[in-house]
Amino acid sequence: MTDAPDRSHFVRGLKDGAPFILVIVPFGLLFGVVATEAGLNVFEALAFSVVVIAGAAQFTALQLLSDNLPAVIVLISALAVNLRMAMYSASITPHLGQMPLWKRALAAYVLVDQTYATAVLEFEKRPDLTPSQKFAFFAGTASAIVPLWYASTITGALVGSSIPDSLALDFAVPITFLALIAPALRTLAHVAAAFTSVALALTFMSLPYNLGLLIAAVSAMAVGAEVERRMTQKAA
């Protein structure tokens, strides 16, 4: 996946992505357990993780499917939860957009919260990296995360409810997003967007079909963009 000169950057990405093992494994185990409890077999649980490869959206879709909601509602809700991926794509394109089609397709597939957060921080700290070196780093990060997501999903589906509640695997979900968001709150615009999303998500949490998440996400983007515009205008 990487050329010899880019191997060191691949290894660097592998190392930087390794700490997420601490949350990816329990996150994947939890999904595997929940999937089997919802009636999916091991193959279906794994296929879910391979095709969707987005933990939050997978949990959302699984919950709505368990509630026997219409498929269109399930799809809309999952897309709303994953709306952030569009922002990730726009942010990462200047760094990887010059790569060949197959590399861009691969990057798009493994573009998840952890790979994005790790890569974009590296790219901002080291703007001198070539596109090839950036892709090598990104591939290394994904190699530390994605296979473990598959493996832990299978393990969770196989062991099912035999995992004791005392392990509290559900801690992985909030811890994952806290670990991703905290380092990214570097400007007033970032903080404003984060505060808006949390406040509105809590305010509208009673809305059906997870519409509150959609409202919070769109509003947070608008607030962040407006704060950034005003700060730029003031600086000018």
TrEMBL record:
Transmembrane stretches, by residue range?
A: 20-38, 135-160, 167-185, 191-224
What the record says about family reads: Belongs to the AzlC family.
Q: Classify the protein's membrane topology as the record does.
A: Multi-pass membrane protein
Where is it located? Cell membrane
Q: Which UniProt keywords apply?
A: Cell membrane, Membrane, Transmembrane, Transmembrane helix, Transport
Q: Which domain of life is it from?
A: Bacteria
Name a Pfam family for this protein. AzlC
Q: What is the lineage of its organism?
A: Bacteria, Pseudomonadati, Pseudomonadota, Alphaproteobacteria, Rhodobacterales
InterPro entries according to UniProt = Brnchd-chn_aa_trnsp_permease
Protein name stated in the entry: Branched-chain amino acid ABC transporter permease
